[in-house]
Design goal:
Blueprint: H1 6-16, H2 21-33, H3 39-52, E1 57-61, H4 67-78, E2 83-88, H5 91-103, E3 110-114, H6 117-123, E4 128-133, H7 140-150, E5 151-160, H8 176-190, E6 194-199, E7 205-210
Parallel strand pairs: 1-2, 1-4, 2-3, 4-5
Antiparallel strand pairs: 5-7, 6-7
The structure holds S-adenosylmethionine.
S-adenosylmethionine binds next to helix 4 and strand 2.
Length: 212
Amino acid sequence: MERWPEAVYTYIKELTLFDDPVLRKMEARAKNENFPIVGPATGAWLYFFTRLTGAKRVFEMGSGFGYSTWYFAAALRDNGGGEVVHTVWDAELSEEAKIWLEKANLLGTCDFQVSESTLALEAADPGIDLIFMDIDKEGYLDALPSIKRKLRPGGLLLVDNMLRDGNVINAKDQSEGTKVVRKLNQYLSDSPDWEYVLNPIRDGLGIARLVG
Ligand SMILES: C[S@@+](CC[C@H](N)C(=O)[O-])C[C@H]1O[C@@H](n2cnc3c(N)ncnc32)[C@H](O)[C@@H]1O
């Protein structure tokens, strides 16, 4: 299904682009190897929400080689300090993320954990200000109870790929990932425990505030 025409997306990206040579190199790395990153427009929202909430503790689920982590780490630095936990189950990606964030001078706000992300979250102390979920989509619903336990009341959950390229409304798409995303959208929208909006940037960024 069609997203915004590419030219409109380019316009948005150019307006919100962070002028950082390390980010440009990370984007090139992702493009060359077809690695799925949130990209600069969604990244800008990650930075913005971290600044807006004055978050000190951020937990990232499915951090890849650290591209999305860059935005949280930069926002925490600009918030005056804090910590983003980078979690991924590939040790090589975790090591690569350390190298990129060191190049960006952002290592000071990052903790790196090689683990299945929901398990790592279960082991974390509660009271987290912001959780970002970008793991395999099949795992989104299973992760929700841990997220609810670990987020502080009033904390923010951001979830990537909540439109599945528009396939959330395509009845022919009965893949497990899309079915889970549909259920999560509906649940966050209906549940009295969450206030939910779905931002249509790129592939859809779900924004859920834990009521409390
Ligand atoms: C979509 S990519 C993440 C990209 C990253 N958020 C970014 O924008 O730069 C997801 C990454 O998390 C890993 N991953 C997927 N599901 C995971 C899980 N349940 N636990 C840990 N890592 C996971 C994948 O192998 C991949 O490296």
